[in-house]
């Protein structure tokens, strides 16, 4: 991998020069020596992790630096509508990559201070913002640097290991959700498309319900419908869940 235009990589969206400029040999499969093959696997795996981080940072840059305007798009969401064909990647993957890149950029100093290593740990960044909303920052950054993936995920989401799958695919899909007073945008698509003849009261109720559902989904949790008598009962249920999560 070579530095762009041969210039030093000082851009905040770029990888460290030691990673961006290193070469990887992929012929280790020809060897009959176990140690040589294992060394090749380890070295290549490191390269894949750094390559994934480069992709994450690139998507964040396209959005934050409005690079989509170069292709005539007015917004990142408009760009996403065509990006699947432009770069041959699913919208789901693009959303996850960008979320990781944004978390890395927004908290890079704290991550580095805590000793966080991107190699093999990028998926934990998907849960960083959620963890920071529920816990103190010092504890969060220490845990993201030292906890295994599943332990940090459960810590961030409030779920116990018994409630989670033991299998965690790379870049598991979490939708990119943006909620405004007029729109709920999921992976770049506005889901509030009601028939024109639907009355305003019904539109308002449905919009309210959908916002609550996707606010829960945006936090990485699963929304469930619970039949309660009134708002006081709903508050009591939420308090019970908060106490239960604090014990696990």
Keywords summarizing the entry:
3 domains; globular; mainly alpha; 3-stranded antiparallel sheet; 10 helices; 248 residues; 53% helix; disordered N terminus
What this model shows, in words?
This protein is mostly helical and about 250 residues long. The protein has 3 domains: about 1-85; about 105-170, no CATH class; about 175-248, no CATH class. About 55% of the residues lie in helices and about 5% in strands. It has helices at about 15-20, 35-65, 75-85, 90-105, 110-115, 130-135, 135-145, 150-155, 200-220, 230-245; strands at about 175-180, 185, 190. A 3-stranded antiparallel sheet has the order 1-2-3, covered by helices on one side. Helix 2 (about 35-65) packs across helix 4. Residues about 1-10 and about 160-170 have low confidence and may be disordered.
Which class best fits the helix and strand makeup? mainly alpha
Helix amount, in percent? 40-55%
Number of strands: 3
Strand coverage percent: under 5%
Q: What's the mean pLDDT score?
A: 77
Assign an overall shape.
globular
Query: Whole-number radius of gyration?
Result: 22 Å
Assembly status: single chain
Strand order of the largest sheet: 1-2-3
Order of helices and strands: HHHHHHHHEEEHH
Biggest sheet descriptor: 3 strands, antiparallel
Number of helices: 10
Distance between the termini: 45 Å
Instruction: Please indicate the count of domains.
Output: 3
What low-confidence regions span 5 or more consecutive residues with pLDDT below 50? 1-10, 160-172
């Amino acid at each position: 991998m070579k530095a762009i235009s041969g210039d030093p990589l000082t851009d905040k969206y770029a990888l460290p020069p030691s990673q961006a400029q290193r070469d990887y040999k992929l012929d280790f499969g020809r060897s009959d020596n176990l140690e040589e093959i294992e060394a090749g696997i380890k070295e290549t795996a490191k390269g894949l992790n750094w390559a994934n981080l480069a992709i994450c940072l690139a998507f964040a840059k396209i959005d934050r630096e409005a690079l989509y305007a170069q292709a005539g798009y007015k917004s990142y969401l408009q760009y996403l509508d065509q990006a699947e064909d432009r770069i041959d990647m699913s919208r789901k993957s693009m959303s996850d990559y960008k979320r990781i890149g944004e978390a890395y950029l927004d908290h890079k100093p704290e991550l580095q201070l805590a000793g966080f290593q991107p190699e093999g740990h990028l998926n934990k960044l998907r849960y960083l913002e959620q963890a920071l909303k529920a816990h103190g920052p010092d504890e969060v950054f220490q845990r993201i640097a030292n906890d295994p993936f599943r332990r940090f995920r459960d810590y961030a989401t409030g779920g116990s290991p018994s409630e989670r799958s033991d299998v965690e695919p790379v870049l598991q899909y979490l939708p990119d959700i943006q909620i405004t007073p007029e729109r709920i945008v999921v992976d770049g698509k506005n889901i509030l498309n009601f028939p024109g003849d639907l009355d305003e009261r019904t539109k308002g109720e449905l919009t309210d319900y959908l916002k609550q559902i996707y606010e829960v989904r945006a936090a990485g949790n699963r929304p469930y419908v619970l039949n309660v008598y009134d708002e006081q009962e709903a508050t009591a249920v939420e308090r019970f869940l908060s106490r239960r999560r604090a014990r696990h």
